[in-house]
Design a protein that fits this description.
mainly alpha
Amino acid sequence: MSSAVAPIFGVLGSCMGCMVFVENIAKQEPAAMNLMTFSTFLFISSIGLVFTSKFFTVKNKIPLEGYIKTVSMFFFVNVVNNQALNFHVPVPLHIIFRSGSLLATLVLSVLIAGKTYSARKYISVFAITVGIVICTLATSSQGNSDFSMEEASKHYKEWSIGIIMLIFALIASAYLAICQQQMYEKYGKHPDEAMFITHFVSLPFFLIMGNDIVSASTKLSASAPYTLIPGIPSLWVDLFASCILQYGCIKYVYQLNSRVDSLTVTLVVTIRKFLSLIVSIFYFKNPFTAQHWLGAILVFAGTFAFADIWGGNSPKKQDEKKNNKFRFLFFFQNYARCLASFPKLFRRSFHSLIQVIMFHPKFLRFYIACQIFHFVIIFEFVF
């Protein structure tokens, strides 16, 4: 099995960088969620059309009927998750529901795929899910949070619809991971083709939301001009940056899905959500309370238990541990060489970071996203 180290780091880096721009757009224009989803699908489809399909001159290795379940579930999950925010669902509750995908994937893998897991896997998944819920609730209770009974009572009907949407999206998301794994098992592993076809075939469905997308486009065009590029609305710049990073995030998720099982993929994505939550706590200088410590301990302990780093000593497990050890050593050795070959570049990056913080704090978000994208590129070349 190919090493999954590079895709894991790619998922964590690009997905967390993408959330910086997504959250900024969501705060200024909450109604732009469908536009964001459509832009991401269009961007990924365009790149796949040129480099993967080569304008449909490359024959598909997986027949189109093999994508039916995957495409329908994929489109449903993306649209419903974004639409739920339009029904006054509090953001912390939204995060909690999406964090439950790990537990949902475990249950559906047993019920549908007929897989069996050890008791340690069940306990670790439960610990990770509970840990993220505790951290989310602790964060939402700080400052001015919209996660309150008063806010929920004002929009009870819309809030109820949003909750139902999140429940269906949670189940569909878990089923999607299983569908992708079953597709790879039946037709072979072709992640680049699968990513292109899944997004390209979904584009016609956005005609249903045409008016909403056009309206959101008008609002983004009316945003304040971007400081570095005069004349271009700032939210369009954020949208383009989110598409680039989202492309990297989805690409690495597809690569990871072709190398490990669906439960491990969901684990990596869930840990990414947890790390994003922790980063936001420190970024906004919120206190790291005892609840956060409890949640973090549960998440990391559950992750280590899931990885089985203290597992048994059977010959097979020992061989797997040796292989994993060599993979990690190979990864860090190559990455260290990469860092050593660019000492001036990294010194300049550090100096420029100091300058941005001292003299241009407004550009800090843009600078951090560029650095994250830079590291993702490094990982790509290392492997």
